[in-house]
UniProtKB/TrEMBL annotation:
One of its GO terms (molecular function) is DNA-binding transcription factor activity. This is Winged helix-turn-helix transcriptional regulator. The keyword NADP does not apply. It comes from the Bacteria.
Length: 138
């Protein structure tokens, strides 16, 4: 199961990376831009939970994005906590990337068909829930 999902994830990542590469983005960065756009300000820990990303990977991705000027951060009440939000440059980068992302998304949807497309979303959500909360089978 794990090997099959990882293989599919790598293939999907390559598909989307190819679409947004001309913009200087990787799909992991685009996902963070999208999440920050939807959440506004959020703690790094909560963002990691939402994206099911480990702390090391998220920290490395955020640091690259911060250096590019796309993400701003400030300390939380607890000095170990960072609060993140999109900068104006981050909003611009997301706006520029959306047409390429939508095209890649549309290509996948067209190839898979509506029913399989929606079934895969439900399955991916279910697998994520079970994997991140093994005892919670509700």
């Amino acid at each position: 199961m794990c090997a099959s999902f990882r293989r599919a994830a790598r293939a999907l990542t390559q598909h989307y990376d190819e679409a947004i590469r001309p913009l200087g983005l990787r799909v992991t960065q685009l996902t963070v831009l999208q999440a920050l756009s939807l959440t506004g300000g959020i703690s790094q820990g909560k963002l990691g939970e939402i994206l099911a990303m480990d702390s090391t990977t998220l920290t490395r991705t955020l640091e690259l994005m911060r250096r590019s000027g796309w993400v701003s951060r400030k300390r939380g009440a607890d000095r170990r906590e960072w609060w993140l939000q999109l900068s104006a440059s981050g909003h611009d980068q997301l706006r520029r990337a959306l047409p390429a992302w939508k095209k890649a998304q549309s290509q996948m949807a067209d190839q898979l068909g509506d029913k399989l497309w929606h079934d895969l979303f439900k399955l991916a959500d279910r697998v994520t829930t079970v994997a991140t909360n093994p005892g919670d089978l509700s």
